[in-house]
């Protein structure tokens, strides 16, 4: 039997805006409102408004909250100050990535872990299981929050006009409680677009009012509502991994070129954490003989590579595309792919992608494809 998709607090509003809806990880989500390209360019040049209420919020509280998180995750959570956030991962015992996460430290002994929609239950179950023996509580807060993001160069000005919070003092990867359009919110300077922007965690019943206030405040500077489709091309240009594409349980953080998130030097729990031994071996492998490396590919032609397509050189398969799309910013198709280390140097020519039997020419480039001017 199929279960009905979950609806966000903004569902009726999306439909009234004429959004094309799609099932994403069991949620009915807006894919686009109009043109994906226009939405993408709005975020790069002005601002875009996103409903991200499908993300999974998990609260961890208690005297040993940080010990639990240091044991359960690969990052060093004990060095995160109150009001700050950190990108990290949760791995299996064998080092495989269960999910990539952002952890916000909300108080002395209170943390919020934000998981990807498709993995929220897996992460919740893993944290709950790993909490045994720690004086800490793991709480499923997925229904307690709606999440709205405003992203793009105009986003600070837009948000400033409807909040009392000190946005100038809010650094990247920091979050502070404040009031937005008259209601309480956690205001985080985070995002998944490669642009400056904010993510607002609020009560579901306040979501519609805040969305409308942001829409009104942003109208004069070109803010438009944006769907998941342009969020994907924005994060691809910014070289940001997507779980299920660049990150899977078959890969360790070192395989994904993200070994920096693994902190072997953490001292809580005598330095022990889930997956440590496997990850030490993976780190060694990545140093001496990395199997494949994550690279960017830029097309010479117009055909778009998709996840799963083979990367070839001289008739031999040397890798696989993990994400591909036309890049509105570069004006040509781009892809991320894992390729054999021997062919991973930026500037490598003669690489092709097998698109339905023809080998289309690509150039290997360093990630990200796009970096905003600060």
How is the secondary structure organized here?
Elements: E1 6-7, H1 11-16, E2 20-24, E3 27-32, H2 36-45, E4 48-51, E5 56-61, H3 65-72, E6 85-91, E7 97-107, E8 110-115, H4 120-130, E9 137-140, E10 146-151, H5 155-160, E11 175-180, E12 183-188, E13 197-202, H6 207-218, E14 224-225, H7 228-237, H8 276-288, E15 292-299, E16 310-313, E17 316-327, E18 332-340, E19 351-355, E20 358-365
Helix pairs in contact: 2-7
What does this structure look like?
By secondary structure, this protein is an alpha+beta fold. Among the domains are: 6-53 and 145-237, Gyrase A, domain 2, CATH 3.30.1360.120; 291-374, Aminomethyltransferase beta-barrel domains (Elongation Factor Tu (Ef-tu), domain 3). It is built from eight helices and 20 strands. It has helices at 11-16, 36-45, 65-72, 120-130, 155-160, 207-218, 228-237, 276-288, and strands spanning 6-7, 20-24, 27-32, 48-51, 56-61, 85-91, 97-107, 110-115, 137-140, 146-151, 175-180, 183-188, 197-202, 224-225, 292-299, 310-313, 316-327, 332-340, 351-355, 358-365. The strands form four sheets. It has a six-stranded mixed beta sheet. A hairpin with a 5-residue loop joins strand 6 and strand 7 (97-107). It is globular and about 60 Å long.
């Amino acid at each position: 039997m199929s279960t009905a998709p979950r609806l966000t607090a903004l569902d009726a509003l999306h439909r009234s805006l004429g959004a094309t809806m799609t099932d994403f990880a069991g949620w009915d989500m807006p894919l686009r409102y109009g043109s994906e390209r226009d939405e993408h360019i709005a975020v790069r040049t002005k601002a875009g408004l996103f409903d991200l209420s499908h993300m999974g919020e998990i609260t961890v509280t208690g005297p040993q909250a940080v010990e639990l998180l240091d044991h359960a995750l690969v990052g060093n959570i004990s060095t995160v100050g109150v009001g700050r956030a950190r990108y990290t991962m949760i791995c299996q015992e064998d080092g495989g990535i269960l999910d990539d996460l952002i952890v916000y430290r909300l108080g002395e002994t209170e943390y919020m872990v934000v998981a990807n929609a498709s993995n929220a239950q897996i992460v919740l179950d893993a944290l709950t299981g790993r909490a045994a023996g720690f004086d800490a509580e793991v709480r499923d807060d997925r229904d307690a929050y709606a999440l709205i993001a405003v992203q793009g160069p105009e986003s600070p000005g837009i948000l400033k006009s409807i909040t009392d919070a000190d946005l100038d003092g809010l650094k990247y990867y920091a979050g502070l409680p404040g009031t937005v359009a008259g209601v309480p919110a956690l205001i985080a300077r985070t995002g998944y677009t490669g642009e400056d922007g904010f993510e607002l965690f609020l009560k579901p019943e306040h979501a519609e009012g805040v969305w409308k206030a942001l829409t009104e405040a942003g109208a004069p500077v070109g803010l438009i509502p944006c769907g998941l489709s342009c969020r994907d091309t924005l994060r691809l240009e910014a070289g940001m991994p997507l779980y299920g594409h660049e990150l899977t349980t078959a890969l360790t953080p070192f395989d994904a070129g993200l070994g920096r998130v693994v902190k072997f030097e953490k001292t809580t729990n005598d330095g022990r954490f889930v997956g440590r031994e496997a990850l030490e071996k993976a780190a060694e492998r990545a140093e001496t003989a990395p199997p494949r490396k994550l690279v960017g590919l830029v097309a010479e032609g117009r055909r778009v590579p998709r996840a799963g397509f083979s990367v070839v050189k001289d008739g031999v398969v040397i890798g696989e595309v993990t994400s591909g799309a036309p890049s509105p910013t570069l004006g040509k198709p781009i892809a991320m792919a894992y390729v054999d280390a021997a062919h991973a140097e930026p500037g490598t020519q003669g690489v092709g992608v097998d698109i339905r039997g023809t080998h289309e020419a690509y150039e290997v480039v360093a990630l990200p494809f796009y970096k905003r001017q600060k």
